[in-house]
Amino acid sequence: MSSSLFIKICGLKTDRDVDTAVEAGADAIGFVFSASPRRIDAATAARLCARVPENVLTVGVFRDEPLRDVRSLATDSGIRAVQLHGPEDRGYYDGLATGGWTLIRAAAFGEPAPRHGDMGEDILLLDALVPGSGIAWDWSTKPLAAPGEKWLLAGGLTPDNVRTAVAAASPWGVDVSSGVEQTRGVKDPALITAFVRAARDRS
Ligand SMILES: O=C(O)c1ccccc1N[C@@H]1O[C@H](COP(=O)(O)O)[C@@H](O)[C@H]1O
Known about the structure:
- By secondary structure, the chain is an alpha/beta fold.
- The protein has one domain: Aldolase class I (TIM Barrel, Alpha-Beta Barrel).
- 28% of the residues lie in helices and 22% in strands.
- An 8-stranded parallel β-barrel has the order 1-2-3-4-5-6-7-8, surrounded by 5 helices. A two-stranded antiparallel ribbon has the order 9-10.
- The protein is globular, with a radius of gyration of 15 Å.
- The site of ligand LGQLAAA5 has 26 residues, from strand 2, strand 6 and strand 8.
- Residues 10-11, 30, 32, 34, 36, 38, 61, 63, 85, 106, 125, 127, 131-134, 154-157, 175-179 line the site of the ligand O=C(O)c1ccccc1N[C@@H]1O[C@H](COP(=O)(O)O)[C@@H](O)[C@H]1O.
- Belongs to the TrpF family.
- It is an enzyme of class 5 (isomerase).
């Protein structure tokens, strides 16, 4: 993984999506296993994971799925991180802790502000109210997290606004899905490359 801003590209479904994100320099790529136009099955994710080098984190995205389904999809696909978007409680997180997956807790930003580590997660993800909707929220609201904490900014990011968002919120990393698509659920290679460049300020 890069020591600079951590970049995750989410909702990938094809070999071309994965190859583009890896070549662009993404630190993590996400596969959606819950209801979504981006949903893929474990066998597809396993095939895509096999294309990904060790230094890129593969993430499975779940929303309010039974714990046993998360465990089996994560095991069967070979992903290395689990991202949870539902109202999962501490017991649910503890039920995944022994699996060796990096745990990412997604929370909608609101009051009270979600705090890093409350569920024992490794990374906190602050998102809009509706995940995967491409809708942004007020990133300039501060403080979002304590300095040095691993937290990802997500929700409505695009190649055009990611620099502004990073400057406003100072996240550890960023996560994007809709903003790098040509139509809903279909990634655009040029936008993936442009996003990574812009996020690292190399446009
Ligand atoms: O992308 C989805 O369809 C999705 C479905 C269920 C849970 C999370 C989902 N995506 C997450 O949403 C943000 C990105 O949102 P945006 O489209 O860039 O606004 C990211 O965390 C995805 O992992």
